[in-house]
Amino acid sequence: MALERALVRLLELTCGITIANVYYAQPLLPTIARELGIGPSAAGMLITVTQVGFACGLVFVVPLGDIIARRPLITTLLAIDAVALAVSAAASGPQVLGAAAILVGASSVVAQMVIPYAATLARPEHRGRTVATLMGALLLGVLLSRTFAGLVAEVSGWRWVYGVAAGVMAVMAATMYRMLPAGGREVDLGYAAQMRAVLRLARGEPVLRWRSLIGAAQFAMFSCFWSTVTFLLSGPPFGWSKAGIGLFALVGALGALCALGGGRLLDRRRTRLPVTGGAIVLLAGSFGVLAAGRSSLVWLVLGALLMDVCCQVVHVTNQAVIYDLVDAARSRLTTIYMTTYFFGGALGTAVGISAYDRYGWGGACAASAGFCGLAALGWLATYRHERPTAARLPAMSDQREN
Q1: Residue 312 burial class via C-beta count within 10 angstroms: exposed 0-12, middle 13-18, buried 19 and up
Q2: Exposure pattern of 178-217 as b/e (b: 16+ CB <10 Å)?
Q3: pLDDT of amino acid 255
Q4: Per-residue pLDDT at 231
Q5: What is the pLDDT of residue 272?
Q6: Between the CA of residue 12 and those of 117, 131, 137, 144, 228, what are the distances in Å?
Q7: What pLDDT score was predicted for residue 398?
Q8: Which of the residues 50, 153, 218, 274 could staple to 314 if both were Cys, CB 3.0 to 4.6 A apart?
Q9: Residue 345 backbone phi and psi in degrees, to 5
Q10: Structural domain boundaries in the chain
Q11: Phi, psi of 60 (to 5 degrees)
Q12: In this predicted model, what pLDDT tens digit does every residue of 91-111 receive, in sequence order?
């Protein structure tokens, strides 16, 4: 089955709208902290538990994408997401809000279920382009979620952000039920067998393991920055409103354009190692620029642009590599890579907010830059495993297992 343009657009919309739910809280942290009477670190935990919930969904829910028909699975998860967002809007305290955040994160893994689905349907020579297109939509959802949350909260309060999101997800669930093609499961396995296959794949693919480590380090940097820049912009010398903080996220849109435009180039390259390595080096440099943005908006914008672009280059090249490792059951690849990726994001958020509490903006930038060293180690480790002609060999054995 060829990947039709209309289906690609639907999957893009699903990625962007669903992943946004995980990030609405970031520009709202100071407001939520004041209303609920908690400190910045406690408010920051709302992001951390959402990302942990997302990571748990990646471990236990995403593998179902290979063994259950996608239409009922995806629409059920979207409906659960809508309910969890509605509970968040009505939450009376941090405990209820935190519990709902875990469920929002776990059900929002729909965004990561449609990417391997699209990669499976796409022709091999177009796979990098297709993945990059969906990743661009996903990144726009991440970035525009902050803008949306800031603007809505400025007008109506932070609870309306979650209330509107709940309504959107309910509409999305109904739309996907009508529009997503009906079909059976891709792999004839039970859940326990599928989970064993995930573990076998993780043990047998060193490229997947090291690329997952690189992705985790990259997302830790990304999350560290976007979780702490909210506090920087809301305090002196900037003193920005919620709407202003939300609009600042638009500077990261260039990263989305990079992801959208880079897929064609990736399809033409035999190896993505030099691209990944160069992006990691530039990432380390971007935090030096960001540190200078403590009192200068110009440096802050320039550093954010460079950081976002490099993060997306690393992420898209990682996924282009791993989706070439097997020819079917790509939800297993997503489970391994994205679980590691989002645990990295949760760690980056926690470390970044703690560093900001103790050492200010400079400490947060130093903590972010420290994750670049971990990414560089992963790049050096995967260097000896990635071969342009060897990447397809594990797919043969994986198919025989099924």
Answers
A1: buried
A2: eebeeeeebbebeeeebbebbeebbeebebbbbbbbbbbb
A3: 60
A4: 87
A5: 67
A6: 12, 10, 5, 14, 28
A7: 44
A8: 218
A9: -65, -40
A10: 5-401
A11: -105, -20
A12: 888 889 999 999 999 999 998
How far apart are the C-alpha atoms of 37 and 341, rounded to whole Å? Answer: 31
CB atoms within 10 A of CB 270: 9
Q: What backbone phi and psi angles, to 5 degrees, belong to 183? A: -175, 165
Instruction: Give the Å distances, CA to CA, from 113 to 34, 62, 99, 204.
Output: 36, 6, 23, 22
* Dihedral sign for Cα atoms in the order 53, 55, 58, 59: negative
Which of 279, 226, 274, 220 lies closest to 248 in space, CA to CA? 226
Using one digit for the tens of pLDDT, what is the confidence trace for 288-346?
999 998 888 999 999 998 898 888 888 888 887 887 787 766 788 888 998 898 889 88
Gap between the Cα atoms of 375 and 283, Å rounded: 10
pLDDT computed for residue 81 by the predictor: 96
The burial class, CB within 10 Å (0-12 / 13-18 / 19+), for 267 is middle
Tokens coding 286: 């971007």
**pLDDT block averages, 10 residues each, the chain of length 402:** 68 90 86 83 82 86 86 93 95 90 94 79 69 79 84 90 96 89 75 90 91 94 89 88 77 64 54 82 93 91 89 84 77 87 87 91 93 92 68 40 44
Element housing 212 (H / E): helix 206-234
Asked if residues 140 and 256 have their Cβ atoms less than 8 Å apart, the reply is: yes
> Identity (one letter) of the amino acid at 55?
A
Predicted TM-score (pTM) of this structure: 0.74
Determine contact, residues 119/131, Cβ cutoff 8 Å: yes
- CA dist., res. 308 & res. 346, Å (int): 18
Q: For residue 157, what are the contacts with CB-CB under 8 A and spacing of at least 6?
A: none
342 vs 338: CA distance, rounded Å: 6
Q: How far apart are CA 223 and CA 344, in angstroms?
A: 9
Taken as a whole, the chain contains a residue count of 402
84 to each of 1, 91, 97, 227, how far by Cα in Å?
A: 35, 10, 9, 22
Query: Which is it for the CA torsion 190, 192, 195, 199, positive or negative?
Result: negative
